[in-house]
Amino acid sequence: MMGSATTRWIRPGVSLWLFLVLSSIAGMAQTDIPLAPTADDLVRDTVLLIQKDDLDHIRQVQRSAYDTHDTPIVVVTIAKVPPGEDIESLAMQWFNEWEIGKRKPNGQLVNQGILLLVAVVDRKARIELGADWGRRWDDHAQQIMDEVIIPQFRKGKYSKGIRAGVDALAAMAAMGPDGRPGRRRSLSGILRSKPDPLISPLPVWGSLLMGAAGVALLIFGLRDYKKYRTVIIIGGFLLAGAIVFWMTLFAIGVIFGGGRSRGSSYGGFSGGSFGGGFSGGGGATGSW
């Protein structure tokens, strides 16, 4: 009698707990806009794809492009594009939200910012260009995507691919929107670097599978709590492990992301300020 009453009390409780957990996971699955970049920090590596030595190099290149050519090159890595969206619309949305561009000390807007967005689990990347680039540079951006970035990503060398992509985009910034975007004979020279150590989306996929297995076991076990109590416990541990992984990844991304959450103008490395830009719809998309 007591066991039956306990079961009647526990099953609704476990069901409620499972509902709350699934609701929280659904909320976490929505890719909120990361903290806004600033002129002092143009990298938002939320899934930790970039090695430290490559990150240092990328920041030096970004600083040079910003100071010398008035071109902020923003790099963002995420796990997945939110359901119902594509990487092109997401890149344009974030570009405009962050107003990627530069205002000179006299207030003149230089709207030639560049955004490189990488969604590692979706295996997609996007280069989004400020309006000053027009559409003349789309083919050149596509060449950078196809010949520089994607070949490295296919080998699992995400850090090196991002680094090489930033180098190529900085060379494009040096030419400027008024330059000639003709195809260069080769972009492969940019890729002279050592292979990455193990940097891959496998831990991300593993955590997703672990969470899915946990949910499946919990749902199965709730059919008969007394009979499948061990199954429920195992499912709970798997789901909890997946949640801890994603919460840790999110926390690390926030801690090391830095920056400010909103705003359109920030102080820069030299004269002028970050902000004011908007996308012109141009750029390039790649997948691997």
Which properties best describe this structure?
288 residues, Diaminopimelate Epimerase, Chain A, domain 1, four-stranded antiparallel beta sheet, alpha+beta, 9 strands, elongated, 2 domains
Architecture overview:
This protein has helices at about 1-30, 50-70, 85-100, 140-155, 160-175, 200-220, 230-255; strands spanning about 45, 75-80, 100-105, 110, 115-120, 125-130, 265, 275, 280-285. It is about 50% helix and about 15% strand. α2 links the parallel β1 and β2. The strands form two sheets. It has a five-stranded mixed sheet, with helices on both faces. It has a four-stranded antiparallel sheet with strand order 4-3-8-7, with no helix packed on it. α4 (about 140-155) packs antiparallel against α5. It folds into two domains: about 45-195, Diaminopimelate Epimerase, Chain A, domain 1, CATH 3.10.310.50; about 205-255. The protein contains seven helices and nine strands; from the N terminus they run αβαβαββββααααβββ. It is of the alpha+beta class.
User: Helix count, per DSSP?
Assistant: 7
Could you give a short account of the major beta sheet?
5 strands, mixed
> Can you write the helix and strand succession as a string?
HEHEHEEEEHHHHEEE
Content of β-strand: 5-15%
CATH topological fold name of the largest domain: Diaminopimelate Epimerase, Chain A, domain 1
Please give the share of residues in helix: 40-55%
Average pLDDT confidence is 80
Question: Which structural category fits the helices and strands?
Answer: alpha+beta
Write the CATH architecture name of the largest domain.
Answer: Roll
Name the poorly predicted regions.
24-30, 188-200, 254-269
How far do the termini sit from each other? 59 Å
- Count of domains: 2
How large, in whole angstroms, is the Cα Rg?
Answer: 23 Å
Tally of DSSP β-strands = 9
